[in-house]
Amino acid sequence: MAERKTYDVVGIGNAIVDIIARCDEAFLSKHDLHKGFMRLIPAEEAERLYAAMGPAVERSGGSAANTIAGLASFGGKCAFIGKVAADQFGGIFHHDIRSLGVDYTTAPSTDGTPTARCLILVTPDGERTMNTYLGTSVDFAPPDLDPALIEAAKIVYLEGYLFDRLEAKAAFTEAARLARKAGAKVALTLSDAFCVDRHRADFRALIREGADIVFANEKEITTLYEVNSFEEAANAALADCELAILTRSEEGSLIVAAGKSVAIGADPVSQLVDATGAGDLYAAGFLYGLTQGAPLETCGRLGSLASAEIIGHIGARPEVSLRQLAKDRGLLAP
Predict the structure, then answer these.
(1) Residue 46, CB half-sphere, CA atoms under 13 Å: how many?
(2) What local confidence, expressed as pLDDT, does residue 123 receive?
(3) Is the CB of residue 318 less than 8 Å from the CB of residue 296?
(4) DSSP readout, 18-51?
(5) pTM, full prediction
(6) With contact defined as beta carbons under 8 Å apart, do 315 and 277 qualify?
């Protein structure tokens, strides 16, 4: 159990090791991989593909973990809860996320299911072909929660991708209950429109009954409320929670709260290299600002800044200090 102290954000999500390697088109053809797509694969295929890949960078990943890493880059005090196995990749995840200054104490699983991993193949044109084995990360259940971490958080951040299994849904409900009891806010990211479509009723119940803050892109929020209009969806979200942060790619984002609506422009980027992680890092910037008491407009601008940094290079982790970048832009005190 963690020492009781205040965390800005505690994230709960899939604990995945990203394995990033460069390859040519011939490698994709040889292994019957469709360039630019993401697919789920079984453990055996993950092992075969890993053995065939060239030199790779291996680091902690997953949507909520990316957000927490971004928060740490801003200088936030954060922790992460997610399930890995007692194996080689579990050790990599544990070491890497802790090296960023994030507290991570989830006990590894010993039931034989391996750690999740995402094998990312990057061709010379910058396209990423992603092959994901979800492993033990999706076996997350209420006993995997750390109540001490949750109770010590200002905000508990829940990753929608983890919502597929009944045990994970129960864990989210319990995490929200613990957070509310301790006076913490609960934030939920919807993660993916297909995920929303599968679990619409349960997501809406969680938002009404347990989440204070919702992050979603335009497709996710309109899918959730089954409307065609972005404006209708934004109004519906506000009826269910106190704060909704809705991203619209190059059109920026809209922050809706009781009595106000704040539009934030997208930060300019010289070249879009890789959009992976843009929403995760927007959430990092926004949540950092929110936990520091910044106005909503500043929170949104911090989110846009972090999102722009991440899409300017390959990978979903910042390559520069987001705190220094925000200081240089006048969004944080020097």
Answers:
(1) 23
(2) 87
(3) no
(4) EEEEE--HHHHHHTT--TT-EEE--HHHHHHHHH
(5) 0.93
(6) yes
Q: Is the pLDDT of residue 178 over 50?
A: yes
Nearest CA to 128 among 33, 64, 41, 206? 33
Would you tell me how many other CB atoms lie within 10 Å of the CB of residue 312? Answer: 16
Segments in the chain forming alpha helices (H): 25-30, 43-52, 63-74, 88-99, 147-151, 166-181, 193-198, 200-209, 218-225, 230-240, 278-291, 296-311, 322-328
List the end-to-end C-alpha distance of the chain, in Å, as a whole number: 35
Sign of the C-alpha dihedral, residues 130, 62, 321, 155? positive
Q: Name the burial class of residue 177, with classes exposed (0-12), middle (13-18) and buried (19+) by CB atoms within 10 angstroms of its CB.
A: middle
Average pLDDT rounded to a whole number, residues 169-179: 95
From the number of C-beta atoms within 10 Å of its C-beta (0-12, 13-18, 19+), residue 127 rates as middle
Helix, strand, coil: what percent of the chain each, to 5? 45, 20, 35
Tell me: the pLDDT tens digits for 275-284?
A: 778 899 999 9
Q: Of 98, 91, 101, 89, nearest to 18 (Cα)? A: 89
Give the C-alpha separation, 316 to 40, whole Å: 19
Buried b (16+ CB within 10 A) or exposed e, 282-297: bbbbbbbbbbbebebe
Domains located in the chain, CATH noted: 7-14+62-112+135-328 (3.40.1190.20)
Contacts of 250-255 spanning 24+ positions with Cβ under 8 A: 252/304, 253/282, 253/300, 253/303, 253/304, 254/230, 255/296, 255/297, 255/299, 255/300
What are the tokens at 137? 């990360």
* Paired sense of beta strands 253-257 and 260-264, if any: antiparallel
Strand pairing category for 103-104 and 7-12: unpaired
